[in-house]
Design goal:
The protein is mainly alpha-helical. The protein is built from 5 helices and 2 strands. The protein has helices at about 5-15, 20-30, 30-45, 50-60, 70-110; strands at about 50, 70. Strands 1-2 form a two-stranded antiparallel sheet. It is elongated and about 80 Å long.
């Protein structure tokens, strides 16, 4: 998942209400056509779905007015990616601290 697609998924989680492609294009200031590939990917991977209230009246077709909601799988994926990013950041900080300590010990070894 690229950063833009993840940002869309996080936007759906933060708004906590159904958003259409039209709503998304207004929020992100991008045309519908530039959003479709990311939204279709999220739909194909079951991270988003057409709002059941909308699909009863209009069907499951993706249109600019189709209301989409985040699924439980989408929420789980956001949480998983957030944990992975925190773990990576922690490991990076730990590696730099370890390097600093080892360089300091190496330098100190010359003076004793």
């Amino acid at each position: 998942m690229d950063d833009i697609t993840l940002a869309f998924l996080k936007l759906y989680k933060s708004k906590n209400k159904p958003l259409s492609l039209s709503d998304l294009s207004v929020i992100t200031d991008n045309p519908h056509s530039s959003l479709i590939s990311n939204i279709v990917w999220l739909l194909d991977n079951s991270y988003l779905e057409v709002d059941p209230g909308y699909s009863v009246l209009h069907g499951d077709n993706l249109s600019p007015k189709a209301k989409l909601i985040i699924t439980q799988d989408g929420i789980i994926e956001i949480d998983r990616l957030s944990k992975a990013q925190r773990k990576h950041k922690f490991n990076e900080i730990r590696a730099w601290i370890t390097l600093t300590i080892s360089i300091a010990a190496f330098i100190k070894s010359f003076f004793l």
